[in-house]
Amino acid sequence: MFASLSPLRAASLFALAAGLALASAPAGAQQTTSRMKGMQLSNDQPIQIQSDKLEIQDQQNKAEFTGNVKVVQGTTTLQAGKMVVFYKSGGGSVASGDADIEKIDVSGKVYLKSGTQEATADTGTFNLVNETLLLKGDKVVLSEGKNVFVGCQLAVTMRTGEAKLDACGGRVMIQLDPKSRKTTN
């Protein structure tokens, strides 16, 4: 039941894909740990990136997309005010589409959508080396239909699909729609 953030490996974005079956945390806990089934890296679809400005800084091995950044890959869309792509030295170039991407930072009202699934945050980091995703903000919101998960930090290990939603001193809020529960026949 959860979202997709497609990968940007050699110019593709990470995917925060499908299936958040939340396991309850102990009473009073300030975080929730779960599995995000279907978490995978996807390089098989073309990616389209739009922004008001692109600055490629090969000396620093990075490319900065600023102003109304919009990334689309398949059914997944990422929007942010800024996206910085860090790549390995000698690992190709973002301009040629063959960069060996290490990390992607996004900031400025981060919005991710895949089908009916959405996530919002203030900032995000996609670490392609250790295959992790970290979304942070005063309010990180994940939703699908009427199911809503709110915290201040979402950490996802892409290899295992394990996800942890933290409230950063507050409390995690979860709203589940009983109509979204799968029924067995």
What are the main properties of this structure?
mainly beta, elongated
Question: Care to give the gist of this entry?
Answer:
The protein has strands spanning 20-22, 31-36, 47-50, 53-57, 62-73, 76-87, 101-114, 117-127, 132-144, 147-157, 162-166, 173-175.
Strand content: over 45%
Number of strands: 12
Provide the helix percentage: under 10%
Low-confidence stretches: 1-30, 34-41
What is the approximate shape? elongated
Q: What is the distance, rounded to the nearest whole angstrom, between the alpha carbons of the first and last residues?
A: 19 Å
Major beta sheet, specifics? 12 strands, antiparallel
Q: What is the averaged pLDDT score?
A: 75
Query: Could you give the order of the helices and strands?
Result: EEEEEEEEEEEE
Number of helices in the DSSP assignment? 0
- Gyration radius, to the nearest Å? 17 Å
Could you explain the architecture of this structure?
There is one protein chain. With 185 residues, the protein is mainly beta. It has no helices and twelve strands. It has strands at residues 20-22, 31-36, 47-50, 53-57, 62-73, 76-87, 101-114, 117-127, 132-144, 147-157, 162-166, 173-175. Strands 1, 2, 3, 4, 5, 6, 7, 8, 9, 10, 11 and 12 form a twelve-stranded antiparallel β-sheet that branches. It is elongated and about 50 Å long. The protein starts with 19 loop residues before the first strand and ends in a 10-residue tail after the last strand. The relative contact order is 0.21. Residues 1-30 and 34-41 have low confidence and may be disordered.
